[in-house]
Specification:
- It is a single chain.
- The protein is mostly beta strands.
- It has strands spanning 2-6, 12-16, 30-33, 36-46, 49-56.
- It has one domain.
- A five-stranded mixed β-sheet has the order 2-1-5-4-3, with no helix packed on it.
- A hairpin with a 2-residue loop joins strand 3 (30-33) and strand 4.
- 7% of the residues are buried.
Length: 59
Amino acid sequence: MVKVYNKETGALIWNGADDQVPAAVGIGDEISFVEDTYVIEEIKPDGGDMALFVRHLQS
């Protein structure tokens, strides 16, 4: 599972299966959920899961 958190607020943005997130994500990559785009600022292991901490890109 992958959990995506807003780095500024700590709010959980998304929680889903690994196959719904590109396999090769890294810090600085952009990732989109629904109609919003975020940039990955931090990646941490979360038990057997992965936690991404992101910043919302303003349009």
